[in-house]
Design a protein that fits this description.
This protein is α+β, with helices and mostly antiparallel strands. Helix 1 packs across helix 3 and helix 2 packs across helix 3. The chain is globular, with a radius of gyration of 18 Å. Helices cover about 15% and strands about 35% of the residues. A hairpin with a 3-residue loop joins strand 9 and strand 10. The chain has three helices and 13 strands; from the N terminus they run H-H-H-E-E-E-E-E-E-E-E-E-E-E-E-E. It has two domains: about 70 residues, Arc Repressor Mutant, subunit A (Orthogonal Bundle), CATH 1.10.10.10; about 140 residues, Umud Fragment, subunit A.
Length: about 230
Protein backbone atom coordinates (compact mmCIF):
# COMPACT_ATOMS: atom_id res chain seq x y z
CA UNK A 1 0.00 0.00 0.00
CA UNK A 2 1.32 3.43 -0.94
CA UNK A 3 1.35 6.56 1.16
CA UNK A 4 -0.40 9.61 -0.28
CA UNK A 5 2.92 11.23 -1.22
CA UNK A 6 4.20 8.04 -2.84
CA UNK A 7 1.01 7.80 -4.86
CA UNK A 8 1.19 11.45 -5.94
CA UNK A 9 4.81 11.09 -7.00
CA UNK A 10 4.15 7.88 -8.92
CA UNK A 11 1.26 9.44 -10.82
CA UNK A 12 3.24 12.61 -11.53
CA UNK A 13 6.12 10.58 -12.97
CA UNK A 14 3.72 8.50 -15.07
CA UNK A 15 1.90 11.61 -16.32
CA UNK A 16 5.17 13.29 -17.35
CA UNK A 17 6.48 10.15 -19.07
CA UNK A 18 3.26 9.80 -21.07
CA UNK A 19 3.30 13.48 -22.09
CA UNK A 20 6.99 13.95 -22.88
CA UNK A 21 8.76 10.60 -22.77
CA UNK A 22 11.15 11.99 -20.14
CA UNK A 23 11.24 11.54 -16.38
CA UNK A 24 10.73 14.77 -14.41
CA UNK A 25 13.76 16.22 -12.63
CA UNK A 26 14.09 16.03 -8.86
CA UNK A 27 13.37 19.77 -8.67
CA UNK A 28 10.17 19.29 -10.68
CA UNK A 29 9.08 16.42 -8.45
CA UNK A 30 9.88 18.43 -5.32
CA UNK A 31 7.81 21.37 -6.54
CA UNK A 32 4.91 19.20 -7.73
CA UNK A 33 4.62 17.59 -4.29
CA UNK A 34 5.31 20.86 -2.45
CA UNK A 35 8.31 19.43 -0.57
CA UNK A 36 11.09 21.60 0.82
CA UNK A 37 14.04 19.40 -0.15
CA UNK A 38 15.03 16.80 -2.72
CA UNK A 39 15.94 14.33 0.04
CA UNK A 40 12.22 13.69 0.50
CA UNK A 41 11.95 12.81 -3.20
CA UNK A 42 14.88 10.39 -2.88
CA UNK A 43 13.09 8.59 -0.03
CA UNK A 44 9.81 8.42 -1.96
CA UNK A 45 11.52 7.05 -5.07
CA UNK A 46 13.33 4.43 -3.00
CA UNK A 47 10.02 3.40 -1.44
CA UNK A 48 8.32 3.12 -4.84
CA UNK A 49 11.25 1.11 -6.19
CA UNK A 50 11.20 -1.28 -3.22
CA UNK A 51 7.46 -1.85 -3.75
CA UNK A 52 7.96 -2.61 -7.44
CA UNK A 53 6.13 0.42 -8.88
CA UNK A 54 9.11 2.07 -10.59
CA UNK A 55 12.52 1.05 -11.84
CA UNK A 56 15.68 3.11 -12.28
CA UNK A 57 17.34 2.65 -15.68
CA UNK A 58 21.07 2.03 -15.42
CA UNK A 59 23.64 4.42 -16.90
CA UNK A 60 21.05 7.11 -17.61
CA UNK A 61 20.61 10.24 -15.52
CA UNK A 62 17.07 11.01 -14.38
CA UNK A 63 15.82 7.81 -16.02
CA UNK A 64 12.82 6.23 -14.31
CA UNK A 65 10.38 3.68 -15.68
CA UNK A 66 6.89 3.09 -14.27
CA UNK A 67 6.44 -0.67 -13.89
CA UNK A 68 2.85 -0.63 -12.65
CA UNK A 69 0.16 1.64 -11.24
CA UNK A 70 -2.22 1.13 -8.31
CA UNK A 71 -5.62 -0.33 -9.20
CA UNK A 72 -7.36 2.87 -8.05
CA UNK A 73 -5.10 5.16 -10.07
CA UNK A 74 -7.94 6.64 -12.13
CA UNK A 75 -9.98 7.59 -9.07
CA UNK A 76 -7.63 10.03 -7.38
CA UNK A 77 -6.46 13.53 -8.25
CA UNK A 78 -2.94 14.09 -9.50
CA UNK A 79 -0.55 16.81 -8.33
CA UNK A 80 -0.20 19.56 -10.89
CA UNK A 81 3.29 20.02 -12.35
CA UNK A 82 4.87 23.45 -12.23
CA UNK A 83 5.99 23.41 -15.87
CA UNK A 84 9.67 23.62 -15.03
CA UNK A 85 12.03 22.44 -17.74
CA UNK A 86 15.08 24.36 -18.88
CA UNK A 87 15.89 25.71 -22.33
CA UNK A 88 17.92 27.44 -25.00
CA UNK A 89 18.36 30.50 -27.18
CA UNK A 90 16.55 31.64 -30.32
CA UNK A 91 16.52 34.87 -32.25
CA UNK A 92 13.42 36.19 -33.95
CA UNK A 93 10.05 37.90 -33.63
CA UNK A 94 7.19 35.97 -32.06
CA UNK A 95 4.67 38.81 -32.03
CA UNK A 96 2.64 37.43 -34.93
CA UNK A 97 2.16 33.80 -34.04
CA UNK A 98 -0.87 32.13 -35.64
CA UNK A 99 -4.12 31.52 -33.85
CA UNK A 100 -5.44 28.36 -32.28
CA UNK A 101 -4.05 25.11 -33.62
CA UNK A 102 -5.97 23.27 -36.31
CA UNK A 103 -7.18 19.76 -35.52
CA UNK A 104 -5.32 17.15 -37.52
CA UNK A 105 -6.96 14.40 -39.50
CA UNK A 106 -6.05 12.08 -36.65
CA UNK A 107 -8.64 12.70 -33.95
CA UNK A 108 -6.02 12.06 -31.25
CA UNK A 109 -3.51 14.56 -32.63
CA UNK A 110 -3.31 18.31 -33.17
CA UNK A 111 -1.30 20.04 -35.89
CA UNK A 112 0.90 22.90 -34.65
CA UNK A 113 3.15 25.34 -36.53
CA UNK A 114 6.83 24.44 -36.13
CA UNK A 115 8.92 27.61 -35.81
CA UNK A 116 12.66 27.60 -36.35
CA UNK A 117 15.21 26.07 -34.02
CA UNK A 118 16.19 26.75 -30.45
CA UNK A 119 19.97 26.88 -30.62
CA UNK A 120 21.14 25.83 -27.19
CA UNK A 121 23.70 28.44 -26.31
CA UNK A 122 23.91 30.45 -29.54
CA UNK A 123 21.23 32.82 -30.91
CA UNK A 124 20.06 31.94 -34.42
CA UNK A 125 17.25 33.09 -36.67
CA UNK A 126 13.85 31.69 -35.71
CA UNK A 127 12.38 30.60 -39.02
CA UNK A 128 8.70 31.25 -39.59
CA UNK A 129 7.79 28.84 -42.38
CA UNK A 130 4.00 28.54 -42.28
CA UNK A 131 4.24 25.36 -44.36
CA UNK A 132 6.12 23.56 -41.58
CA UNK A 133 3.89 21.83 -39.05
CA UNK A 134 4.08 19.01 -36.55
CA UNK A 135 1.46 16.72 -35.00
CA UNK A 136 1.36 16.39 -31.22
CA UNK A 137 -0.88 14.34 -28.92
CA UNK A 138 -4.09 16.18 -28.14
CA UNK A 139 -3.71 15.14 -24.50
CA UNK A 140 -0.58 17.31 -24.25
CA UNK A 141 -2.48 20.52 -24.98
CA UNK A 142 -4.99 22.48 -22.97
CA UNK A 143 -6.74 25.68 -23.93
CA UNK A 144 -5.01 28.54 -25.70
CA UNK A 145 -2.64 28.92 -28.64
CA UNK A 146 0.37 26.68 -29.13
CA UNK A 147 3.44 26.35 -31.33
CA UNK A 148 6.54 24.15 -31.46
CA UNK A 149 10.27 24.84 -31.61
CA UNK A 150 13.10 22.48 -32.58
CA UNK A 151 15.98 22.17 -30.10
CA UNK A 152 19.57 22.44 -31.30
CA UNK A 153 22.50 22.37 -28.89
CA UNK A 154 23.31 21.41 -25.30
CA UNK A 155 22.30 24.25 -22.97
CA UNK A 156 19.27 22.27 -21.73
CA UNK A 157 20.76 18.82 -21.22
CA UNK A 158 20.54 18.94 -17.41
CA UNK A 159 16.77 19.43 -17.76
CA UNK A 160 16.47 16.43 -20.07
CA UNK A 161 16.06 18.56 -23.21
CA UNK A 162 18.40 17.23 -25.86
CA UNK A 163 19.66 18.25 -29.28
CA UNK A 164 17.01 17.28 -31.83
CA UNK A 165 14.06 17.42 -29.42
CA UNK A 166 10.96 19.46 -30.18
CA UNK A 167 9.41 21.60 -27.44
CA UNK A 168 5.74 22.53 -27.35
CA UNK A 169 4.96 26.07 -26.19
CA UNK A 170 1.68 27.56 -24.98
CA UNK A 171 1.51 31.23 -25.83
CA UNK A 172 1.18 33.56 -22.81
CA UNK A 173 2.57 36.87 -21.64
CA UNK A 174 3.08 36.05 -17.94
CA UNK A 175 4.58 33.09 -16.10
CA UNK A 176 5.44 32.03 -12.57
CA UNK A 177 9.02 31.80 -11.34
CA UNK A 178 10.52 28.42 -12.16
CA UNK A 179 8.56 28.09 -15.40
CA UNK A 180 10.39 27.45 -18.68
CA UNK A 181 9.46 30.27 -21.02
CA UNK A 182 10.15 31.75 -24.41
CA UNK A 183 11.32 35.25 -23.47
CA UNK A 184 11.93 38.17 -25.82
CA UNK A 185 14.90 40.26 -24.65
CA UNK A 186 15.19 43.88 -25.80
CA UNK A 187 12.58 43.12 -28.49
CA UNK A 188 15.34 41.42 -30.49
CA UNK A 189 16.53 38.11 -29.07
CA UNK A 190 14.11 35.34 -28.14
CA UNK A 191 15.39 32.77 -25.69
CA UNK A 192 13.96 29.64 -24.09
CA UNK A 193 15.04 29.61 -20.46
CA UNK A 194 13.86 28.97 -16.94
CA UNK A 195 12.36 32.15 -15.52
CA UNK A 196 13.66 33.27 -12.13
CA UNK A 197 13.15 36.43 -10.13
CA UNK A 198 16.09 38.13 -8.43
CA UNK A 199 14.55 40.92 -6.40
CA UNK A 200 13.08 43.32 -8.94
CA UNK A 201 15.09 41.75 -11.79
CA UNK A 202 14.36 38.86 -14.15
CA UNK A 203 16.86 36.00 -14.45
CA UNK A 204 16.90 33.67 -17.46
CA UNK A 205 18.56 30.43 -16.40
CA UNK A 206 19.99 27.67 -18.63
CA UNK A 207 20.24 24.02 -17.59
CA UNK A 208 23.92 23.48 -18.29
CA UNK A 209 26.77 24.71 -16.10
CA UNK A 210 28.71 25.76 -19.20
CA UNK A 211 26.23 28.61 -19.71
CA UNK A 212 25.63 31.57 -17.43
CA UNK A 213 22.35 32.82 -16.03
CA UNK A 214 21.57 36.26 -17.45
CA UNK A 215 19.80 38.91 -15.37
CA UNK A 216 17.74 41.77 -16.81
CA UNK A 217 15.49 44.57 -15.55
CA UNK A 218 11.85 43.56 -16.09
CA UNK A 219 11.25 46.12 -18.82
CA UNK A 220 13.77 44.33 -21.06
CA UNK A 221 12.06 40.93 -20.95
CA UNK A 222 8.72 39.99 -22.51
CA UNK A 223 7.31 36.48 -22.01
CA UNK A 224 6.15 34.95 -25.30
CA UNK A 225 5.01 31.54 -24.06
CA UNK A 226 5.75 28.72 -21.64
CA UNK A 227 6.94 25.17 -22.12
CA UNK A 228 4.24 22.53 -21.72
CA UNK A 229 5.71 19.46 -23.40
CA UNK A 230 8.54 17.84 -25.30
CA UNK A 231 8.66 15.46 -28.26
CA UNK A 232 11.56 13.15 -29.08
CA UNK A 233 12.17 10.81 -31.99
CA UNK A 234 14.18 7.60 -31.62
Amino acid sequence: MLTRKQYELLMFIDQRLRATGISPSFDEMKDALDLKSKSGIHRLITGLEERGFIRRLAHRARALEVVKLPENAADQALPQPSSRFSPTVIKGNFTALPGAAQMASNADAVTLPLYGKIAAGTPIEALRDHATTIEVPASMLGSGEHYALAVEGDSMIDAGILDGDTVVIRRCDTAEAGTIVVALVDEQEATLKRLRRKGASIALEPANKKYETKIFPPDRVQVQGRLIGLLRQY
